[in-house]
Amino acid sequence: MQARFILLISALFLLAACSSQRVILDSPDVLFHDEFVTGQTGAWQIEGDERGKTAVIAEQLVFTIEDPYLVQYAALAEPVFDDFVLEVDVTQLAGDPESSFGILFRKTGDQFYRFDITGSGLFVMERHNADGSWTRFFDDWRDTEAVKQGISVTNRLKVMAQGGDLSFYVNDQLLQQVNDASYAGGQIALDAGTFGRPGLQVAFDNVVIRRP
Q1: Given the DSSP bridges, would you call strands 122-128 and 142-143 parallel, antiparallel or unpaired?
Q2: ∠ at Cα 58 (151, 98), nearest 5°?
Q3: How is domain 30-210 classified at the architecture level of CATH?
Q4: Sign of the Cα pseudo-torsion (77, 78, 81, 85, in order)
Q5: Rounded to two decimals, what is the model's pTM?
Q6: What pLDDT is recorded for position 24?
Q7: What are the residues whose beta carbons fall under 8 Å from the beta carbon of 22, sequence distance 6 or more?
């Protein structure tokens, strides 16, 4: 009897969570969302070869990178965004914890902002310039306890962009706020990259982009 009661309570909590998620996705403030239906890539521009590839697997967007020092990204072909709040779940499934994964935004050609974390608990925010150089918003990668470390551990990333005001979160904890008005709008992309060791696999899920 007690076990049946616990199962009933668990089912009710799951139903409430699903209903809450559906209310969020049906909100008029939601500009885009993707739960990654298996067999469909939607508007994501997905490319790959034997060195690195991206695919929708088990209702997740999964990056598999076999070479060291390689970055792979998948961009939304449309729509483009200027001001927004983006949230996404990311899980490292395999590979070196020093590998990175995260969000590119306001991407136009080779110009974009980047917010990445590592499986070892580091984060970075930076701007990629048209000449190929990088501008970091602070000196180097920084350590944070907000990142949940380990394989098969999920972190929720969030970027808020309104004009030049950019805010970056992990698991609802604010990491940094910066002001930079270099890029006003562009594509959204998800990325993953290896440093010295190959064999990285990262999964993204539950992407939601809302009005700020």
Answers
A1: antiparallel
A2: 25
A3: Sandwich (2.60)
A4: negative
A5: 0.86
A6: 54
A7: none
- Give one DSSP letter per residue of 29-96, joined into a string: TEEEEE---TT--TTEE--B-SSEEEEEETTEEEEEE-SSS-EEEEEE-S--BSSEEEEEEEEEEES-
pLDDT score at 42? 79
Out of 74-78, 117-121, 165-169, least confident range: 74-78
Q: Structural domain boundaries of the chain?
A: 30-210
φ, ψ at 23 (rounded to 5°): -60, -45
Amino acid at 80: V
Model confidence at 38, in pLDDT bands (50, 70, 90)? confident
Give the per-residue pLDDT at 7: 39
HSE-up (13 A, CA, CB side) for residue 128:
14
Tokens of 112: 């974009």
